[in-house]
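task queued by scheduler; priority normal; single chain, no ligands, no partner chains; default sampling; output format set to structure tokens
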Amino acid sequence: MKKFIFITLFFSAEIFAQEHYLVINPEGHKALIYDTDIDADGNLVTGSFDKTVKIWDVERGFIKKEFLGQIGPGSEGMVYTVDVSPDNKYLAVAGWFGKDDEAEDLGDIRIYDYKTGFLKKQLKFHEDVVKSLKFSDDSNWLISGDASGFIIKWDYLLGAPFLYDRMAFGFSNLDTHLEYFVTTHEDGMIYKWDYNKTKPVKKINFFQKTKDRVVTPEVTISKGGEHIAISGKEIGMVLIFDEKIFDARLFFHR
């Protein structure tokens, strides 16, 4: 009997010998909130460098649900970007999802069942940190971009990637519409893409890169898709583009 107990304890120790982390839950984020989204029911979704994603009731200000993913020392597990599919079925999360010392690929994307919290799929291709991702307006595709300039369209339930031309400078941000999507890059370039073509259909650069300033534009497409807002946060400028001619019609300065 004693021998049986000894073997069982030894076996259990082998199975469960791993790192553990004691984390205090402050009923809110305890680090920088790096990305947000609003789901189809009007709830606020926040992704944070504290390595969690939280769903908030905006009327009453409390947390309705929490997604806990990878956690480790340093940067390991930091969330850079979140998006809920327009049909409210799936949550996509990405960030620094690898070892802090960059000894492995960092760019895995996690697809969760938004209602149950169950991890449905891990999308593997990106080697660098995924900085932004968005579902298409019809929820058919997921577009992602990483710090090394790779942009991918995913059939996210199958895990099948469609690779677009890699841009020379690092990827910054993106937004999607039903018929097209737009990406911005660290050299100030802005590209408009057809979902089914590997090369951009239009491009422009209103934010010229200089030696002392690198502009990393943010982008938002209007609900109808006719206007595109581009902000150069480092220089206090917002441009409103006409989608058809892909040229700025309005300027807002700080």
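post-processing summary
- Helices lie at 2-16.
- The mean pLDDT is 84.
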